[in-house]
Amino acid sequence: FPTSDTLVKPPNSNQSASSLSNRTPKRPRKRRTNFPMEKLMEQYLEQSAQAEDNFYRMEEQRLQAEDRRREAEHARELHMLQMLGQMFSSISSTRPSSPVTPPKTAPAVPSSVFSSASPSCARVFERYYSLGSTLKRGMDDDDNMLSLVKNIVPALTSKKHKGQDGRIGIIGGCQDYTGAPYFAAISALKVGADLSHVFCTKDAATVIKSYSPELIVHPVLDSPNAVEEIEKWLPRLHGLVVGPGLGREDLLLKTAKEVIEKCKARDIPIVIDADGLWLVTQQPSVIQGYQKGILTPNFMEFTRLYEALHHEPMDSSDHQRSVMQLSVAMGNLTLVLKGEHDLITDGSKVISCNIEGSGRRCGGQGDLLSGSMGVLAHWAHTVYQMAKNPSLVAAFGACSLTRQCNSQAFQQHGRSTTTSDMIQEIGSAFKKLFES
Ligand SMILES: NC(=O)C1=CN([C@@H]2O[C@H](COP(=O)(O)OP(=O)(O)OC[C@H]3O[C@@H](n4cnc5c(N)ncnc54)[C@H](O)[C@@H]3O)[C@@H](O)[C@H]2O)[C@@H](O)CC1
Ligand SMILES: Nc1ncnc2c1ncn2[C@@H]1O[C@H](COP(=O)(O)OP(=O)(O)OP(=O)(O)O)[C@@H](O)[C@H]1O
């Protein structure tokens, strides 16, 4: 709208409409244009439309400039990745094979990998992937993985609408456990998802809602038509985390299983943690071979799962080997064995996340991990659509973030660090790792 300065004053603006009409009795009156108020309105509207046009023209130019800037930034990043890739390929062709060799050699990545990402990015990932086992990884490897994570972080622009950066669902929350689904859901939001839904039992819902008005809480998990109730929301979800605080009641596990099946049919990334892993231990086929599935067991959960699939005790002296074996048995599913070093594998290579955490192991930090992984999995599968395994990038990102949060929270709170303290650190830890 024009300002008072730009507003055009009507001719004889100090005269009233009636005195004007009295001065021109003989001339036939042109309807509308001769009537000063109408003319004034016309001019006003015309100017207003012009101002609006100008505004949109300028806004368009601003957005175009912003696009160009982002493209240049992206090109710089790709160039950097390309250089890293060249460095890596020369290292891989000169260095002797690692003394700790996985049971299988890492396969070369097919050329279709990364066909949806830019070609140079694809080349870097290919080279990185074909390095084989990364059991003896150095700082450069971590940096390269972090670059791949940085690449999936969506830009914050005014063009987006709510929901575009991720709508994540958490299946979990029952009478005994209300903290775990809350931790997972709020972590998803703080990492950058736009909306975070919790599907929990009726008696857990009010409690979870009272922790945070940010979460959308559905008290449906123990309702007779739970699966239909949850299924209604699936078309709107980009990622699902199954298990934090789910409990082990048969009915809830059955619902979780059916929801997983529905999600698979929709090709939604699924992270399975905590009691969701209990379900997988009973019925591995529920997720076996699903390429957008990620399992995040702690040591106990891993041991149970390993023994259920291999029918023999695990060799606990060689975690890398065990983790690869389990992933292969699960149909090359992405697996994260949490611990002093988080071991991430899809059965063909092991990536270790060693970012320094702290000596503090408070309950709930695994929920922070799974919640943030839900968002990163969505971003990774969006950016690296045709890549062999974008889940590896998501898993590495979430492990790095959790450990960085743990370290930062510990610096302030020491022994009294809790998961809530870690959640407070998500913003700055994310920025430090992925936006610097
Ligand atoms: N505030 C909350 O509501 C919380 C709820 N939680 C929920 O509690 C439920 C049960 O989870 P649990 O983790 O207790 O599962 P389990 O009942 O399988 O217990 C695993 C046990 O193994 C132990 N353990 C873990 N890592 C180990 C290692 N490396 N070596 C030896 N022992 C190890 C743990 O202390 C725990 O006692 C899940 O639904 C989970 O999500 C947890 O997430 C913690 C926080
Ligand atoms: N010994 C360790 N040293 C450093 N970091 C660790 C260690 N153990 C676990 N972590 C970090 O904590 C994260 C969560 O692992 P943890 O073993 O606490 O999961 P969890 O038992 O499933 O958690 P929850 O209490 O939520 O159920 C890991 O991904 C890792 O980043």
What's the β-strand tally? 9
Report the total helices.
Answer: 15
Distance between the first and last residues' Cα = 40 Å
Helix vs. strand class: alpha/beta
Mean pLDDT: 82
Quote the beta fraction. 5-15%
Order of strands across the main sheet: 3-2-1-4-5-6-7-8-9
Q: What is the general shape? A: globular
Question: Major sheet: size, sense and barrel closure?
Answer: 9 strands, mixed
The low-confidence parts are 1-30, 92-120, 130-136
What is the radius of gyration?
A: 29 Å
Bin the helical content.
Answer: 40-55%
Bound heterogens, unique: ligand NAX, adenosine-5'-triphosphate
SSE order in H/E notation?
HHHHEHEHEHEHEHEHHEEEHHHH
Describe this structure in words.
It is a single chain. By secondary structure, the chain is α/β, with parallel strands linked by helices. It has 15 helices and nine strands. The chain has a nine-stranded mixed beta sheet, with helices on both faces. Helix 5 runs parallel beside helix 12 and helix 12 runs antiparallel to helix 13 (390-413). Residues 1-30, 92-120 and 130-136 have low confidence and may be disordered. Ligand NAX binds next to helix 5, helix 9, helix 10 and helix 12.
